[in-house]
Design goal:
Oligomer: single chain
Largest sheet: 4 strands, antiparallel
Strand order of the largest sheet: 4-1-6-7
Order of helices and strands: HHHHHHHEEEEEEEE
Number of strands: 8
Structural class: alpha+beta
Helix content: 25-40%
Distance between the termini: 50 Å
Shape: globular
Length: 240
């Protein structure tokens, strides 16, 4: 059986395609495609990214994507088995302050994103229920009724709170590489840990993620479903 990398290279060459041709069509950089064909996994990074790239490349070439991922899994060390209860208890008690601090920061970030989202939803509902203000020029002047009892004037209604427009928010639930381009300018690119939350303003946003199942988007206040499955590489454009 040919090696995994040789199988990808042979399938590509059989179609008369160069690495640049494939990169342009599936939006994976040619350096990563070359790393797959040479089985240089360290050039790609974490196994979750490798699996996502392998799936996308295999589907494009008409190969069995899951069989290719299984072949890759055989080349990497097996994951550590679950620790016995007693061992897990000792490890839990021995957590370092850094680990505890990182967990607390991640929870705070998630709570902040949730608070911002629900605050926005409540403000939107409040604005929708407020009556439109009547222009002062349309109010008819009336003479005061001499028999009417004096009463203080009613307080004016508060001005409506403007809804946020042209806004994209994202939350990283699992480590993922991502790139965000707003109105033609790349504003974010890199690998981000779980708990990362960001927001952007503009009119057109192009979002590309390396782990589609680990990133959620909020467009103009509306939470969208996951972009895809864990490990999938997905690129989408949003008109804000």
């Amino acid at each position: 059986m040919p090696a995994l990398g040789d199988e990808f290279r042979s399938a590509r060459e059989a179609r008369g395609l160069t690495l640049s041709d494939v990169a342009e069509q599936i939006h994976i950089r040619s350096v990563y495609l070359h790393a797959i064909e040479t089985e240089d996994w360290s050039a790609i990074g974490a196994p979750v990214y490798v699996r996502g790239f392998i799936r996308t490349y295999a589907r494009f070439l008409g190969l069995d994507a899951e069989a290719a991922v299984a072949a890759f899994n055989e080349t990497v060390p097996s994951e550590r088995p679950p620790a016995p209860v007693a061992t897990a208890e000792r490890e839990r008690r021995g957590l370092s302050p850094w680990a505890i601090g990182a967990t607390v920061v991640a929870l705070i970030l998630v709570a902040f994103v949730a608070f911002e989202y629900f605050s926005y939803a409540q403000n939107a509902q409040s604005v929708a229920s407020q009556p439109e203000p009547v222009p002062s020029g349309s109010q008819a002047a009336t003479a005061p009724d001499a028999n009417a009892s004096a009463s203080p004037p009613a307080s004016p209604s508060p001005s409506p709170i403007p809804l946020p427009k042209h806004q994209l928010g994202l939350r990283v639930d699992a480590p993922s590489w991502l790139r965000v381009t707003v109105d033609g300018t790349t504003v974010v690119e890199g690998t981000f840990p779980a708990g990362t939350a960001k927001s952007f303003n503009g009119r057109v946003a192009d979002v590309r993620v390396g782990n589609a199942g680990g990133v959620r988007l909020i467009v103009d206040g509306k939470a969208l479903p996951p972009l895809g499955k864990t490990g999938d590489v997905v690129e989408q454009r949003y008109t804000l």
